[in-house]
Amino acid sequence: MENATLRSTWKSLYQVAPQQLQKMSQVNGVVSAFNANIDAVIKVSPELLLKWVALLGADLQELMADGPRTITVPQDVLRGFLKCFSTGSAMEWLVHDESAFQWMRANIGYDRLQMGGQGGIIGNVLSVCGAKQVFVHCASLPEQQAKLFLDRPNLLSADPQGKPAPAARIAREADLPLIHWILEFDKGSSLEIGGEIVRCPKSNRFIATWDPQNFRLAIDPAFHTLIQNARGVETVLLAGYQMLSHPLLDGASGLARVDESMQVVDAWRKQHQGLCVHFEFASTQDKAIRKHLLDHVAPWADSIGLNEQEMIDILEVAGEEIFADECRRDMHGTTLFKALEWLFSYTKAKRIQLHFFGMYVTIQAKHHATPIETTRDGMILAATIAAAKAGTGSIEKEENLLWAHGREVADVALAELLAIATHLGDGTPVEDLMLTGVWRGQAFDVAAVPTILIDKPITLVGMGDTISSLSLIGAR
Ligand code: GLC
After folding, report:
1. Which atom of ligand 1 lies nearest, measured to the CA of 211?
2. Domain 3-37+118-175+213-473, classified CATH 3.20.20.100, yes or no
3. What mean pLDDT do residues 189-196 have?
4. pLDDT per residue over 219-264, tens digit each?
5. Which CATH number is 41-113+178-209's, of 3.30.160.250, 3.30.1110.20, 3.40.50.150, 3.10.560.10?
6. Atom 5, ligand 1: which residue's CA is nearest?
7. Which atom of ligand 1 is nearest to the CA of 239?
């Protein structure tokens, strides 16, 4: 099949995006929990990095060495950054020592503050897309945080009395601002390390997180009451578990915190019949937590979302080292799809969506309540809006949402589709999947959507959150 033919086929399939966006107004109630925070974003040039290296009297070569993925001294910030910069990957490391955070505060600075945390980002996205009520959980909500929420009547959180109020207008002044540093870097910039040139292969970001509230997955009791009493809640989107450690910094059990949060959500399930619980995996560095999420939260959720790096991390804690290595060497359609099949059978999940460069692919259990074509249409909406986010830098205004509508999907994206179609067809590409993006198998159904790619994305942070939440909520 010619790529030109395929591109025009997919352009037609993508025509559904505006219609799917309109259907967002049928969404009665969504909960976005648990993490909202402030992101301090800065673009880090090699010169800026070298300035910090000099300030700390550090050695670039030593900073390239492997070590624990946490931050206890300022050098660790540079070490984490270099790891991401040299491989073009995205990671989040937790700052476990307040003095390292104070060093960042005094020396790193930022270009802008923006909404952060899966919960906060998803809250804003679903609100601008027009869901009737979006309830967003905030472990902390001082004015500095509230100002980052869109000031829209459909975006609600709990006021101190447990009553719903626009999140942008609640200011809980005693609360601590939770600030995460997002260090962005550009593809192609380079550093000389030990006589060798290290060139960054892909624009991405490193996140250094200091967040005492979310480190213990603090849940606002007023919000819990609010959700118990709310009407029309259909879906809960969960994230924020990646900030836990086991044990917690105060010595208590991190695993128990996960279980307690599940009890809270189970109480919501009791109140709201048929509630769909989606779990967003996120970059979870603590291996005990990661394993617990895989074994307990993933099978308990109705839907799971993750990216390729998170998939590899999962294989690693499941004892599938060889498979993890295979994925690391080949982060593409065939290998990653095999990993997705593995995860589907390991967790017995009803729906899992994996996104990676150029491709979103969802595996759904047979006889799922959402037809597989509808799932595909939700993914098309997500791909259109994610491209708008990358291309315009902000989707806070409704008029930006369909910015990318009418663009063609990328050739590299079609190559990923071909890889998956070839795998499913045992060596001969399944034509149906290529032309419609859906495939029905014996054990599961598949929706695969090649994406529109933006050459020089203005922003990348929060992309995965937008993709996972809109794919699910936009499938109707
Ligand atoms: C993590 C980070 C947060 C960032 C988000 C983006 O939640 O803690 O700072 O905004 O990822 O996906």
Report:
1. 8
2. no
3. 94
4. 999 999 999 999 999 999 999 999 999 999 999 999 999 999 999 9
5. 3.30.1110.20
6. 117
7. 7
- Quote the ligand 1 centre to 239 CA distance (angstroms): 10
User: Are 14 and 437 within 8 A, CB to CB?
Assistant: no
Between the CA of 136 and the centroid of ligand 1 the distance, in Å, is 15
Q: Which of 112, 270, 268, 132 is nearest to 181 (CA)?
A: 112
User: Considering only CA atoms, which residue is closest to atom 3 of ligand 1?
Assistant: 117
What percentage of the chain exceeds 70 in pLDDT? 100
Distance CA 114, CA 310 (A): 24
Q: What local confidence, expressed as pLDDT, does residue 376 receive?
A: 98
Closest CA to 29 of 223, 232, 178, 169: 232
User: Ligand 1 centroid vs 280 CA: distance in angstroms?
Assistant: 12
Residues with CB under 6 A from ligand 1: 35, 37, 39, 92, 116-118, 180, 207, 209, 461-462, 464-465
Please say whether the beta carbons of 431 and 424 come within 8 A: no
Q: Is-contact 275 236, C-beta < 8 A?
A: yes
Residue 447 one-letter amino acid: A
42: which 2 tokens? 């800065």
CA-CA distances (angstroms) from residue 319 to 82, 294, 316, 438? 27, 12, 6, 31
Residue 209 CA: nearest ligand 1 atom is 8
pTM: 0.94
**To test the ligand 1 pocket, which listed residue (32, 39, 94) has its Cβ within 8 A of the most ligand atoms?**
39
**DSSP-assigned letter for residue 184:** E
Q: What is the domain partition of the chain in residue ranges?
A: 3-37+118-175+213-473, 41-113+178-209
Of ligand 1's listed atoms, the one at least distance from the Cα of 115 is 10
pLDDT in tens, 300-319: 999 999 999 999 999 999 99
Residue nearest to atom 12 of ligand 1 (CA): 462
Nearest CA to ligand 1 atom 1: 117
Q: What is the DSSP secondary-structure string of 305-361?
A: EEEHHHHHHHHHHTT-HHHHHHHHH--SHHHHHHHHHHHHHHHT-SEEEEEETTEEE
